[in-house]
Amino acid sequence: MSRKGTRRRLRALAATTVVGGALGLGLLAAPGLAHGSHHRATAHAAIIGGTSATIGQAPWTVFILVYVNDLDAWSCDGVILDSTHVLTAGHCLYDDDGPAPTLAPASDFYVYADQSNVSSVIDNVIFDPTFDPSVLPFVGVTSTRPDPSYDPTGEQETYASEYDAYDIGVLTLASPLTLNNGSGQAPQAISFGSSGSPAPSSTVSMSGFGLESPPQVGEGFPDGSLNTLSQTVAPVGMCVLSVDALVGCSTSPSGSTCSGDSGSAITGPGNDLVGIVDAGTIDADGNLCDNGSITFFAKVTTPELTDFIDGSANPPAAPQGGVNIGCDLSAPVVGATISCSPGSWTGSPSFTYEFVDDNTGQVLQSGSSASYVIQPSDVGRAIYFLAIATNAGGTGTSRTVDTSPIQSAPAVTTTSTQTTNVATSSPAPSTTTSSTTTTTSRSTTTTLTQQPKPRPQPALHVSVNPGHVRPGSHLTLHVTLLAGTSPLSRVRVCADVPAHASVASASGASVKKGVACWTVNVRADGEHVVSIVLAVAKHAKAGSMTLAATATWSRGHELSGRTRVSVS
């Protein structure tokens, strides 16, 4: 599904009441811009629910104003790489006030460093009849360089386009900044993360000049203050498919990025740079930037992106794929073998495979084998398969849904034959004494019996992660189609979008009138998994939400499944 309507780039756009071209996190308005113009359905970012910060807490942060004319201006954030280069979101370099995005002239960019508040710049753009960028000290730009693989339209039928992969760009400054590296004073260049991309469930931070309260689509202006927010990196497969090596996502139950935050830094331990903010989601009510909204970011520690930032014209391509990852499992019982495939990948990566207990995160097996024999200690566990694909361009991951809880092996009954030797004495004539031994046999028939194994039939399983959600948060629905002994072709798998929820991401699906559908093929004894990320409305009532799916194919065959998630 296209990001339009569910994702917005987070830059702020110029308008009297319009702030966010796509929901990229940039935001500003220029005098005279008609309400509703210069507006796109994707979203770019600002910080909601964060805390006020000084530039000394994020001394690498700059405010970027792009002023084309009185009717066309926007703002983003940026990150100081060195005295003459700034990193930002790729979409911040494009003017989308026309039939197709075009690169804005470098002369229209103004970079403001060492500032904790840029309200005077914003006020000048919005209210003053004459534009004066010098209300605060600024540095001009001589050239802009977007990643050549970035799609500014977001309309290409690829996962890279859908998830805004490669959404980064570099500005070359007209004059060098005077940096105070190591002094604790702004401005400073940021350092790149040495430990790679942030791990799932780890904490990251971001600081930006974006909106401080949730807007309606295309409305609102930032107050110019710098704010900071901590978020948690989402689990593998939660919100990004195929381009996991390039794009990550994070959330916070108490805040969100919003319009105006595009280009801001995602930092990990030691304030090292691990990502650049580019987009966010719109909730089921059509609102932007509510608490719990997903923030999407470019994983700039991936070698493909790092090499581009460093100036390479031909960086090695990171692996992309894993959408059709899957496993064969006749039954989730002790002794059975889970046999898996990582699916299709680009870039000829090498693989490491893991089988993981989803309840505890314990890695049960890791290595080059894509098969796992279920052990007695696995009873009660829900196990998933994780493929880790690595090449010179980076590392991507993809995972399956969980197995059903592992059960003990079927009971086996036996009977046995027992032979006993019994010694007996017989009375003898008084002149002699003798004894005889009589052998008797007490026997039961020896058998080994087990219930005949039924031939697997097609089945549909519906699961959800997590099993408990808050209003305004997100969940992932997984629909697993098992083929049985015969292959299935052109199966229509559809998942209903429940009331008080909306689609945040449904890769490969056609979404119409509250139903997301895929057409899939499944090999004999195989399975196919489709997933959809749903945004739960902030006004959703506490209780149980039903999630249902169906699978239909030739000659009227139909399967259905459902599960429930607790909302409170």
Q: Care to describe what's here?
A:
With 568 residues, this protein is mainly β. It has 3 domains: 7-178 and 190-307, Beta Barrel (Thrombin, subunit H); 326-399, Immunoglobulin-like, CATH 2.60.40; 459-567, Immunoglobulin-like (Sandwich). The chain is built from 3 helices and 38 strands. Strands 14-15-16-19-18-17 form a 6-stranded antiparallel barrel. Strands 6-7-8-13-12-11 form a 6-stranded antiparallel β-barrel. A hairpin with a 2-residue loop joins β25 and β26 (394-399). The two termini are 28 Å apart. Residues 1-8, 13-46 and 422-452 have low confidence and may be disordered.
Query: What CATH architecture of the largest domain do you see?
Result: Beta Barrel
Q: Can you summarize the main beta sheet?
A: 6 strands, antiparallel, barrel
The fourth-level CATH homologous superfamily of the largest domain is Trypsin-like serine proteases
| Low-pLDDT ranges | 1-8, 13-46, 422-452
Rg (CA only): 30 Å
Trace the largest sheet across and list its strands. 14-15-16-19-18-17
The N- and C-terminal alpha carbons lie at a distance of: 28 Å
Strand content: 35-45%
CATH topology-level fold name of the largest domain: Thrombin, subunit H
Can you give the mean pLDDT?
A: 80
Helix content: under 10%
The secondary-structure class comes to mainly beta
The overall strand count is: 38
CATH class category name of the largest domain = Mainly Beta
Tally of distinct domains = 3
Number of helices: 3
Shape: elongated
How would you summarize this macromolecular structure in one to three sentences?
This protein folds into three domains: 7-178 and 190-307, Trypsin-like serine proteases (Thrombin, subunit H, Beta Barrel), CATH 2.40.10; 326-399, Immunoglobulin-like; 459-567, Immunoglobulin-like (Sandwich), CATH 2.60.40. Helices cover 4% and strands 40% of the residues. Strands 14-15-16-19-18-17 form a six-stranded antiparallel barrel.
